[in-house]
């Protein structure tokens, strides 16, 4: 009984420690971010030769000179479709299944605007928190709209139910969204200041408060992982004594 419990405690302790390692990297990057009071001052930050590729925190409203096709406000739109179906498995049995497929992604260049300057944002799609800033829209569409998307690969036969639900989900970054962005300040090919995004936040965020909370969580997680690993060692010792 002691050994299984020891394995569980040790495993949890290691998982928490690994998660803390990733969190520490985020903490270190955010801790060194330089607050830029207004976007106009980003150029001055880049002119400081003592700081190479400075990590900064900036704020502003999303803007663009254009939008994605057939969109009034979207500068980034990612679309997925969800279909509730029945499929026949290898044994010939009919089983219900829900399928979600990526459909398309469209985007146009966009910038942050705080009234003093406009600064374009790049490398944003893989930045942490980006998808949390997107608005979601759902609509019901005819199955024929996504027939090719859900086309069978030959391994299974699709059987549509009488009440097929085919839902479209769009995730949209809209013009007018206010964001706090942490990223590396760089210059584009024309020499204009640009942000290579690392972390996104919805609205106005005081980064110091977020970093302090993150530090507290890392400290708690570190202590918990040590406790669990130590407990696993105690359980192993008890098992040895019993035998």
TrEMBL record:
Catalysed reactions listed for this entry: S-ubiquitinyl-[E2 ubiquitin-conjugating enzyme]-L-cysteine + [acceptor protein]-L-lysine = [E2 ubiquitin-conjugating enzyme]-L-cysteine + N(6)-ubiquitinyl-[acceptor protein]-L-lysine
Enzyme class: transferase
Membrane topology: Multi-pass membrane protein
One example GO MF annotation: zinc ion binding
Location(s) in or outside the cell: Membrane
Sequence intervals crossing the membrane: 224-241
Keywords on record: Membrane, Metal-binding, Signal, Transferase, Transmembrane, Transmembrane helix, Ubl conjugation pathway, Zinc, Zinc-finger
Residues spanning the signal sequence: 1-21
Superkingdom per UniProt: Eukaryota
InterPro entries: MUL1-like, SP1/SPL1
A single GO cellular-component term on record: membrane
Domain E3 Ubiquitin ligase MUL1-like positions: 104-196
One GO term of the biological process aspect: protein ubiquitination
EC numbers, comma separated: 2.3.2.27
PANTHER family named in the record: E3 UBIQUITIN-PROTEIN LIGASE SP1-RELATED, PTHR47568
Protein name: RING-type E3 ubiquitin transferase
Organism of this sequence: Raphanus sativus (Radish)
Source organism phylogeny: Eukaryota, Viridiplantae, Streptophyta, Embryophyta, Tracheophyta
